[in-house]
Design a protein that fits this description.
Helix content is 52%, strand content 2%. The chain is an all-alpha fold.
Length: 188
């Protein structure tokens, strides 16, 4: 099966590419999980995060924002000893703070999707070289999230987030996933 050029032969990466990346979601749990994971990725490769994802799910309460928002400093200290996750105190503190802020939003799903006009933006790139690292929409999302107090939400992280959640569809035209995702509506 032809895939996007960024997808390696790692089975975890292949599964992510084939079943999640670029698939539009409006599921608040999934959107929140990706917000935390994309922040954890800052400065690292996505495959590093994917390999630690299951452990993150275990130690960050299944990405339940209500429980994560209540995570104590002692619990953060405990997680700093866990080699199964990325041990970065600032990222863990940001995950807790982002959970708190997420819970304060009236409609986090609608708000995040508003940066692409509420519908997936389908791109028609022929090559990975055409796929941008940042767009005006990602810059706007980053500014708004930072203004609201969120951390680890720079424009590059926000664009990767938009790609992961299917707000933008950047599978290249030669990828097997392109035809189906070029016409799929956002799911719930």
């Amino acid at each position: 099966m032809p895939r996007c050029a960024w997808c390696s032969d790692d089975p975890l990466y292949i599964d992510y590419h084939d079943s999640e990346w670029g698939v539009p979601t409006r599921n608040p749990q999934v959107l929140f999980e990706f917000l935390v994971l994309e922040g954890a990725q800052a400065g690292l490769s996505w495959i590093t995060v994917l390999r630690k994802r299951e452990r993150y799910r275990q130690v960050l309460f299944g990405f339940d924002p209500t429980r994560l928002a209540q995570m104590t400093d002692a619990e953060i200290d405990e997680r700093m000893l866990d080699a199964g996750i990325i041990r970065n105190r600032r990222k863990l503190e940001a995950a807790r703070r982002n959970a708190q802020l997420w819970l304060e939003l009236d409609d986090p799903v609608g708000w995040l999707w508003s940066f692409v006009g509420g519908e997936p933006k389908v791109n028609h790139f022929e090559s990975i070289n055409q796929v941008p690292a940042v767009t005006a929409e990602a810059e706007a999302m980053s500014r708004a999230l930072k203004k609201a107090g969120f951390g680890f939400v720079g424009p590059t992280i926000c664009y990767a987030y938009m790609q992961a959640c299917g707000m933008v569809m950047d599978h290249t035209t030669d990828c097997d996933r392109y035809p189906a995702l070029a016409r799929v509506p956002a799911s719930t």
